[in-house]
Amino acid sequence: MQGKPVVIGVAGGSGSGKTSVTRSICQRFSDKTILVIEQDYYYKDQSHLPFEERLKTNYDHPLAFDNDLLVAHIRELLAGKPVNKPVYDYKIHTRSKKVIPIEPKEVIILEGILILEDPRLVDLMDIKVFVDTDADLRIIRRLMRDIKERGRSLDSVIEQYIDSVRPMHLQFVEPTKRYADVIIPEGGQNHVAIDLMATKIGTILAKNRKLK
């Protein structure tokens, strides 16, 4: 690896298209260049709580995340050291005993709804992106995903959206837009914005490689 890794934060509401944007950026580079770290993997360990208590976790609140560990891992990667990324098990609502070993790469993409909410994470980023998608599209995407991929019922998805997802978005996610360097409307469908992002990343990589 040449030089200090470039750290990119990709934030936005649930269903905004963060993953599509990240995937589109990654497709423009080789697998050896980009490392993606999902904030969802860093939900706090809840093994000390009874299962019934774990069910009450609000996964859209900043306190649900173990940002201390995430910050420590980013700093380790920036120092050229490997880390073990945790795995969260949604079936038992706590952290799995499994970990995923990851090595430093030239570009680190941090993806998550609240990746711009913690000043410590923001300070580590070279580029901050907010994927801005209308609420009606976000809820439709979330409905389709949770029903198809997670076996959820329509009523349960709507109830969760009204009770926690929407209020947490308005209170914590939406305000972080002000910290973004780049705002991408409509997520992965915005090919012009993604092309510009890829060009910027390529420019930074070329500069870093020259500095080696």
Q: What are the main properties of this structure?
A:
212 residues, alpha/beta, Rossmann fold, five-stranded parallel β-sheet, two-stranded antiparallel ribbon, 7 strands
Widest sheet, order of strands:
2-5-1-6-7
The number of E-state strands comes to 7
CATH topology: Rossmann fold
| Main sheet summary | 5 strands, parallel
Helix content: 40-55%
Q: Tell me the CATH architecture.
A: 3-Layer(aba) Sandwich
Molecular shape: globular
CATH superfamily: P-loop containing nucleotide triphosphate hydrolases
Give the CATH class: Alpha Beta
Question: How much of the residues is beta strand, in percent?
Answer: 15-25%
Unreliable runs, pLDDT <50, ≥5 residues?
Answer: none
Characterize the structure shown.
By secondary structure, this protein is of the alpha/beta class. It has a single domain, classed as Rossmann fold (3-Layer(aba) Sandwich). The chain has seven helices and seven strands, in the order βαβααβββαβααβα. The chain has helices at 18-26, 51-54, 67-78, 119-124, 135-149, 154-173, 191-211; strands at 6-12, 34-38, 83-89, 94-102, 107-111, 127-132, 182-185. The strands form two sheets. Strands 2-5-1-6-7 form a five-stranded parallel beta sheet. The model has no long low-confidence stretch (mean pLDDT 90).
